[in-house]
Amino acid sequence: MKLRKITALMLCVIMLIGSMSIAAFAEEEKQFYLVLGDSIGYGSGLRNSKEACYGKIVADTNGYDYANDAIPGHTTQNLLSRLENESVREHVKQADIISISIGGNNFLLGNLPALLYNLIVKDDLSQAESIIDGFCKDFGKIIETIRSLNPDAVILMQTLYNPQTGYIGEAYQISIDMLNEAIRRFQSENGEIEIVDVAAKLTDSEKDFASDGIHPSVEGNKKIAVAVLEKLVELGLGETAEPVITAEGIDANVPSAFAAPLNLFGEILHILSVVRGWFSFITDILPF
After folding, report:
1. pLDDT of 24-49, one tens digit each?
2. Domain regions of the chain by residue span
3. Which of 2, 31, 49, 192 has the smallest C-beta neighbourhood within 10 Å, fewest atoms?
């Protein structure tokens, strides 16, 4: 009888130790999710971006450890420099999954007025093509740098969306299509990345974007989170695409006057394009 009690006690101890080991192992195996890139990744359309941006939603939904090293205003060149930061490099080394949002500022900071003038008035793609060439060179180096630090992480590259409407929106779409095609071409030729089609999710200019007309709103961040979660389910790295919201986002309040000049600029450029078209037509039909 005593022997049975001792045996039962030993079994209980062994089971307890085993369950503790399993729990510790599960804790060690927790996935680490890292966001890199620009203001979209940072969550600049939200007043409480740290608590409610799409990266945080993805991490909370899947129970990942999480870090966000995105910086507003960053271009591909800036991200390359950012990857020299020791803290960021450590995060890259630790990461199991890395989301990247980059490329929009290559256009916004690459002499945007001249780019829009060329696209709307002159129907000239040369400046856009030059910006895309620079993006492609930088992006290749970004992926190469990440792979040198972490050969195994799943890299999720987001497509670029179009937040604009009207004539500006039409010009934006030309450049955005070119950039997204470059991303798909890179994936086709090199592998290395999984594409998250954010552009296909953000299609409602009224609801998906903040009042600045550039950054995703609360609703936009939720939609990006769903796009990422769907890709993770597809890859077997998540179980659901239904986002878990632990902190409700608050839209950033940007005066509408911030976006209005851009729309006015588009109207002016359109008028110039019409005048230029008529001028070309007249000079073509004149006999001298």
Report:
1. 434 457 899 999 999 999 999 999 99
2. 30-285
3. 2
